[in-house]
Design brief:
The chain is mostly beta strands and 111 residues long. It has one domain. The chain is built from no helices and nine strands. Strands 2, 3, 6, 8 and 9 form a five-stranded antiparallel beta sheet that branches. Strands 1-7 form a two-stranded antiparallel ribbon. A hairpin with a 2-residue loop joins strand 8 and strand 9. It is extended and about 70 Å long.
Length: 111
């Protein structure tokens, strides 16, 4: 994500969702029992960050923020196109499309 000069030294909120080709939010993981989600699934991951303004940053510059998320056990029911959507401060910021393709098992030749 890019944080403009005017948005430094402020708290920002991000959320990550997974969507199918029709734009429907999909579950990413099982929720812990204390989460109290209706279907026991996590559909949104999020957090907060604050980017400082170093003395070398000039007005008009942006800072690049790397976001890494480990989603353990994410499964896809079928081959299709999907996308992760990142919201920043409540507005869609970036879409990361990808495609799941079926895995083909190669059968060894017998002699």
């Amino acid at each position: 994500m890019c944080v403009p000069y005017t948005a430094t030294n402020q708290m920002h909120v991000f959320e990550l969702t997974l969507q199918d080709a029709d734009g429907q939010e999909l579950p990413m993981a099982d929720a812990p029992p204390e989460a109290g989600t209706p279907d026991g699934k996590i559909r949104r991951l999020g957090g907060q960050f604050n980017v400082g303004r170093p003395p070398t940053l000039q007005p008009g510059d942006e800072q690049l923020i790397a976001l890494a998320v480990n989603i353990d056990g994410l499964e896809f029911e079928r081959a299709d196109t999907y996308r992760f959507v990142i919201e920043l401060d409540g507005s869609p910021e970036k879409e990361l499309p990808f495609r799941i393709v079926p895995a083909f098992q190669v059968t060894p030749l017998r002699r």
